[in-house]
Design brief:
Structural class: alpha+beta
Number of helices: 3
Shape: elongated
Number of strands: 12
Distance between the termini: 143 Å
Strand order of the largest sheet: 1-2-5-4-3-12
Radius of gyration: 38 Å
Largest sheet: 6 strands, antiparallel, barrel
Order of helices and strands: HHHEEEEEEEEEEEE
Strand content: 15-25%
């Protein structure tokens, strides 16, 4: 189009009409007289826009995928190198292999009991408060640890948190004479209280003095209100002896704990209790009884015995 006086007037007229339509559209709101035209345009050009989008998006996605895959590949290669180095280190260090096994067992207990745990390592034993059976762990308030939280490991109940610092915490062990925990018998659900006796088995007082108990029966924690200081279902130990002299009101048992308190290393603090009581699900599987071999003796008749035929 030539730049003439008529073309300029036409351009000014078109601009004026456009501004007028915009003004009418804004003032009209939902009842705008140009709304029908807008919908018609959308109906006409919408499929074209969708088609272009469908055609262009896969290309963009492919480019992003290629870029991301390169990043993931580099990251995966780095992780593989780190894992290989870690395995090599663990493979040459018996202590680290032991810790790895302990961690695996503890995570299994946490999964079966649905406990939310914070892993920690024992960094000291004993305390400045006398001769208590305690340990110090390398996790504290900065890690979400609070007083009166349950502490366990891959074998069962370790104790409860008593003192919390910013980065460390003190744990009172379950075999300490000042330690008491509510217990529940497997299957029978009989309740009692277990108390520590140092390096001797735990002493358990069952509330029902007439309950039937036998050697080998197992106990778990009963649990506390709001899961503090004890969450339910944590394995405690196995009945090793039953006191024959009972008062009739209670019954005394001696329980060998699952946990070896003199060889603690990796532990877990339960920072979140289970949504439901796991009951006996966390207890280890009972060993299958070893079948007694049957020996069959076949007696062969001796030469010359009665009833045998001898050739002359």
């Amino acid at each position: 189009m030539r730049d003439t006086k008529e073309s300029r007037l036409l351009l000014v007229l078109l601009i004026a009409i456009a501004f007028a339509l915009i003004t009418v559209d804004i003032r009209g709101g939902r009842n705008s007289p140009v709304d029908g035209a807008r919908q018609a345009a959308a109906a006409a050009f919408g499929p074209i826009e969708n088609g272009l989008s469908s055609a262009v998006n896969p290309v963009g996605d492919a480019v992003s995928a290629v870029r991301d895959s390169g990043t993931r590949h580099d990251r995966l290669a780095t992780l593989e190198k780190e894992n290989a180095a870690l395995k090599a280190k663990l493979g040459s260090d018996d202590r680290n292999r032991s810790r790895l096994n302990q961690l695996d067992k503890m995570l299994k207990i946490a999964g079966e009991g649905q406990y939310g745990i914070k892993g920690a390592q024992v960094i000291a034993i004993g305390s400045a408060q006398g001769f208590s059976w305690t340990i110090t762990i390398d996790a504290g308030a900065n890690d979400g640890i609070e007083r009166d939280m349950t502490v366990l490991n891959g074998d069962g109940l370790v104790g409860r948190v008593t003192t919390v610092g910013p980065d460390t915490a003190t744990v009172l062990l379950a075999n300490d004479p000042d330690f008491t925990v509510g217990t529940r018998m497997e299957n029978s659900d009989e309740l009692g209280f277990a108390s520590g006796q140092g390096d001797r088995p735990l002493r358990v007082e069952l509330l029902n003095g007439k309950t039937e108990v036998k050697k080998g029966d197992r106990l778990v924690t009963f649990g506390s209100q709001a899961d503090k200081p004890f969450v339910p279902g944590v394995p405690v130990g196995v009945v090793s002896r039953i006191d024959p002299s009972g008062s009739g009101l209670t019954r005394t048992l001696y329980v060998t704990p699952y946990v070896g308190f003199t060889k603690l290393d990796v532990v877990g603090v339960v920072v979140q209790g289970p949504k439901r009581d796991p009951r006996d699900e966390v207890l280890p599987r009972k060993p299958k009884p070893t079948p007694t071999p049957t020996v069959t003796v076949t007696v062969s008749p001796s030469a010359g015995a009665p009833g045998t035929n001898e050739q002359q």
